[in-house]
């Protein structure tokens, strides 16, 4: 995988949506590094395995990472009263550990919107990953998240294995591909957006 691959959005989600991620455990430890080759357990399989430990909870984000020398699939689910991060061994598919977390107000709003209309995200994470891989054959999914963009629910899937890390955005309602772009381009846009938000308003 290209060494310039950046931690996409799942890492940000794991850090930003869960209020206590910066307190020294889980994805907030800074031990994770990009995974250089496709693990035995795919991102979709890791999510499916993790779901068994979080029944009835809403998928939010997932990533494959190398943490402390072990390749894991870290998956975040949530419900109204909190979030749960389930770490899956990306070699065996076994559950490594599960951590309960608090959730950010934006996540609560996302969950409330989904509770009112499940059709907003009727496509499953596995279906979204499959659609992304069909769009870019020969790649593999390393990260993904579910996000609400102005009332439109979107899956963002990061793919490795090609010449450049790519990001595929798909409708969470029907699984159609909305946009395909290079990771660097998306990160530059995100940085510009953050700078704009940081500017003092008159």
Folded structure, characterized:
With 202 residues, the chain is α+β, with helices and mostly antiparallel strands. It has a single domain (9-197), classed as Nuclear Transport Factor 2, Chain: A (Roll). 28% of the residues lie in helices and 34% in strands. It has five helices and nine strands, in the order H-E-H-E-E-E-E-H-H-E-E-E-E-H. Strands 1, 2, 3, 4, 5, 6, 7, 8 and 9 form a nine-stranded antiparallel β-sheet that branches. The longest helix has 16 residues, at 183-198. The radius of gyration is 16 Å and the shape is globular. The N and C termini lie far apart (44 Å). Mean pLDDT is 80; it is low at 1-33 and 193-197.
Features:
202 residues; alpha+beta; Nuclear Transport Factor 2, Chain: A; nine-stranded antiparallel beta sheet; 5 helices; 28% helix
Question: How would you concisely characterize the structure shown here?
Answer:
This protein is of the alpha+beta class and 202 residues long. Helix content is 28%, strand content 34%. Residues 1-33 and 193-197 have low confidence and may be disordered.
| Oligomer class | single chain
The number of helices is 5
Major pleated sheet: 9 strands, antiparallel
Number of separate strands: 9
Q: What is the number of independent domains?
A: 1
